[in-house]
Structure formats: C-alpha cells, structure tokens
Amino acid sequence: MLDDLTPLTRGGRTAGRPERAVLPPALRGGLGVMAGLAGLVVLVLGVLHAGESEPGRVDARIWAAVDRAGPMWRDVALATDFLGEPLGAAVLVVAAVAGCLLVRWPRAALLAAGGPALAVGATTLLKPLVGRTIHGDDNLSYPSGHTAFLTALVLVVALLVTGRLGLGRAAGLSLVLAAALAAGAAMGWAQVLLGAHYPTDVLGGWCTALAVVPAAAWPADAWSRRRP
User: Fold this and answer.
1) Does residue 12 lie in a domain region?
2) C-beta of residue 33 within 8 angstroms of C-beta of residue 177
3) Cβ count within 10 A of residue 47
4) What is the mean pLDDT of residues 64-73?
5) By residue range, what is the domain housing residue 94?
6) Is residue 64 part of a domain?
7) Locate the Phosphatidic acid phosphatase type 2/haloperoxidase domain: which residues (predicted)?
8) In a domain, 93, yes or no
9) CB of 113 within 8 A of CB of 217?
C-alpha cells in the first residue's frame, strides 16, 4: 500500500497528508491488459469498417431491434445524449473536478478533466483516419465520441472510488468494469436509437475510453510524484 500514497512536499519537506494514487496499484496489471485489448478492438473495427457508409449485417440487426422502442424511450435517449453534448459534458466534468478538489485530491481532479478529454480527442483523431460515415459524407461516425466521453468519465470516477475505499484487485476491477459497461451501454443505446451511430461505432467508442483512461492515469500519478 505504500506505493499507493505519495507525500506532498514543499521545500524538500513533507507537507500535509499523503496523496493517494489515482490508479490503484492492485488494479494496474489488470487495467493494463484491459487497455491493450481495448486498443486492439478499436484498431480491428476501424480496419474492418474503414470507408463504409452503410451498416454492416450485425449493425443492421441491432439497429432494427433498438428501433422498436416507443416515443418515451426516445425522450430518454435524448436526455442521455445531452450528457455527451458540450454543455452537458462540461457540467459533468466540472462537477467531477470540483468534487476532487473538495476532498483535496488534485491529481484526481487532473484525471477527471484530462481522461474524458483525451478519450474524446482520440475519437476525433480516429474518425477521419477510418472515414466511416452515416447519413451523408460529412458525418464521420467511427468511433463514437459521446460513448467514449461518458465511459471515460464514469471509469475515472470508478477508479477514484476504488482508491478511496481501498478495494482489492477483484472487487476493484469488478466495480470499474461494471461502471464502464453501464455507462457505455446507456450512451451507446441512446446513440443507436437516435440514429447517430452504428452499433460498432459505439463499441469502438467504448473501447477507446477503456484504452485511454488507464494510460492517462499512469502519467497523472507520475507527474504528481515528481512535482516540487
């Protein structure tokens, strides 16, 4: 557990209570494997669907099943979609950062802001490289930025809760994966129902978040350990 805490220093002397790592040591191995596999899925799906403008066979079947939802569910999907829009996303990130600062956990605030931003940035860079479109040549669709954002933010929160509660490897990984799955499923369902993305776009966005957040958490801890 000693590696999980980093002293805050001032002038070469320890100042205040130790600051907890945002990437719990017990989870590093498992999350590293998860990030690697997720990155591979993003790459494979991107290659398979590069340049497409129509849903694949699996996409079409899922899309048809989701499209049977009634008008009430469309309102729920619109509300969920708002959480990935600039205003909704900004409110969520500000709330997460403020919560981290209230408990005096600056490196957690750094990850709460940086993790989702990096995940969305990754999807923005990948879209023109893959070149998959939906509803016209101007609408690049793979991977889903909305799904990547909400998954990344919830994944960060789950990591921080795991660290604060001191959960072990099995419980911590279970919490992190369950939270990420719930967030990705909710936003992904909304994007498919609204016709904004193909189901495989959603899977790509979800995996993008799983690959990016652990990679962002590692340097956040390293930077905090080295700061004066």
Assistant:
1) no
2) no
3) 9
4) 81
5) 25-42+70-216
6) no
7) 108-217
8) yes
9) no
**For residue 103, what are the CA distances in angstroms to 18, 99, 151?**
13, 7, 23
| Average of per-residue pLDDT values in the chain | 88
What are the Cα distances from residue 124, in Å, to 127, 129, 131, 202?
Answer: 6, 9, 11, 14
Intra-chain end-to-end CA distance of the chain, in Å: 23
3-class secondary structure for the chain?
A: CHHHEECCEECCEECCCCEECCCCHHHHHHHHHHHHHHHHHHHHHHHHCCCCCCCCHHHHHHHHHHCCCCHHHHHHHHHHHHCCCHHHHHHHHHHHHHHHHHCCCHHHHHHHHHHHHHHHHHHHHHHHHHCCECCCCCCECCCCHHHHHHHHHHHHHHHHHHHHHCCCHHHHHHHHHHHHHHHHHHHHHHHHHCCCCCHHHHHHHHHHHHHHHHHHHHHHHHHHHHCC
This prediction has a pTM of: 0.88
Q: Look up residue 201 and give its amino acid.
A: D
Distance CA 148, CA 118 (A): 10
Give the span between the Cα atoms of 46 and 190, in whole angstroms.
21
| Confidence band, pLDDT 50/70/90 cuts, at residue 205 | very high
